[in-house]
């Protein structure tokens, strides 16, 4: 059995810990700045022999620890990932990831030291994502346009995602990771020929929203957006091509299998449309999930460690992770910035 240690005791750490319990993965230990939080987390998820730590070196030096899940603010992730390299611990890390410069180094050193690592993007492990190539081949054909967005209203400005010191990319890194990751699953970052973007910021400098449009060398146009503004959640992707288009309205956190919505709906619906009367000439394909997508992510991480899954799949996931943070950095660097 793989012994997993968790760094952080916040909401997402508890969600993944619960997922581990439900999928038979042992939550072995926890690291927190607070002794009380570490002890409370251990009682809930680690069992009687669980270990709570407040000192990083003691946590990593434990000989029973095999792998680490990092669920801390972005400002601390590089520190903990470097410790994973030093102590040769397999690594599952929440998005957004640290700088592309560091991640490139981490990718190279992790291969040298036989460390399995993966970012914790849930949707790339679900049945919809695995079905996309077939859906596109049958209903889209050659892609000409991709539109991807994730809006999640939030006005609690005391939250760390509005703290530039802890989360310097704001909505671009937090929410924007998903539409950017989806677009990059369909095109190559190096093929992007033109990219225009702007971000909206609070007076504190925290990024509230980003919008980007682009064109690839193969003439695929794309748009990406994420925002904390508004009052309605949106998590949509539309992929258009020479045959027709497909649209998914809940690609990030499906209503049929995510930690937010659990199984509120029995299946995910993919809208298929074509021609000049798409409101008439449309149909829906049902995608059924065998399990919640974050459970499958945990399973896959453990299977990669055990060598039960094709290494090529892991290499592709890692490459797309690096491309995603590189594109986020490009957008952050080049965007027009407007204060609202």
Automatic annotation (TrEMBL):
All residue ranges annotated as the GFO/IDH/MocA-like oxidoreductase domain in the record: 139-246
Signal peptide as annotated in the record: none
GO function terms (MF aspect): nucleotide binding
Protein origin, superkingdom: Bacteria
Stretches assigned to the Gfo/Idh/MocA-like oxidoreductase N-terminal domain: 2-109
UniProt-recorded name of the protein: Gfo/Idh/MocA-like oxidoreductase N-terminal domain-containing protein
Organism expressing this protein natively: Photorhabdus cinerea
